[in-house]
Amino acid sequence: MKSIKFILALMILININACAQFNLNQIQKEANTAKKDLNNLSNNKGKSGLSNDDIVKGLKEALTIGSNNSAGNASKVDGYYKHPVIKIPFPKDAQVVETTARDVGMGSQVDKFVMTINRAAEDAAKSSAPIFVAAVKNMTINDGMTILKGKDDAATTYLRNSTSVELKSKFKPIIQASINKVEVTKYWKPLIDTYNKVPFVEKMNPDLNEYICNKALDGLFYLVSQEELKIRKDPVARVTDILKKVFVN
To answer: What is the pLDDT of residue 8?
Structure first.
């Protein structure tokens, strides 16, 4: 009987000790979490001391600088044509046209055609800056906080979502005017006519305006994303006081 009582008492002590240990562990865990939260709050306040309005102002400034730089670089002579990433190639859907044209000795015309479609994009890029600026002005506090806490291209994504439809509608007539201005058709028509005369091939005539417009926009937003990345990662790119505060490391 005494042995049973002793065993029961021992089991109770073990359970009490285990519960106490669990409670201590739980308390310690909660204390550590609270400490971490306090540190985060303290760090965030110490980093900038900025209001939400200040943060949005800084992000607007970053987007304005980035979009203006991008539009300026894209609209320069060779801004597209000699860029290793955004150069617009011969239309992929018409690759067989390029191959056929080169095979029959029209390589020079192919090269000139590629240059002129890039010139058209460069010409159209000049009109993008005002559209970007208008989108930036409409940024809300919620937009700003999403961008600040988002990925390295969050601002570019915001800009693309906010401006793509308007940019495309405005780019199309400019692209068409640019196509005429730089004589894209002069080099395209002989290529497509030569190809379409080949027996038994499927006739084609791709929409050059649509193709150049889409590629021009892709290139422009690529440049914007690179500008955004510089401001986020490189202190030297933060050329104003508000940028230095908002994007403090």
So the answer is: 45
Please check whether residues 94 and 170 belong to one and the same domain: yes
Which residue pairs from 238-244 have beta carbons closer than 8 angstroms and sit at least 24 positions apart in sequence?
Answer: 239/65, 240/61, 242/54, 242/57, 242/58, 242/61, 243/58, 243/61, 243/62, 243/65
Domain extent, residue 87, equals 51-246
Q: Give the relative orientation of helices 128-137 and 52-74 as an angle to the nearest 10 degrees.
A: 170
Q: Count the domains in the chain.
A: 2
**3-class secondary-structure state, position 48:** coil
Residue with tokens 């042995």: 3
Tell me the per-residue pLDDT of 13-47, one tens digit each, with 9 for 90 and over. 455 454 444 444 553 554 354 334 334 333 444 44
76/1 same-domain check: no
How far is 121 from 214, CA to CA, in rounded Å?
A: 10
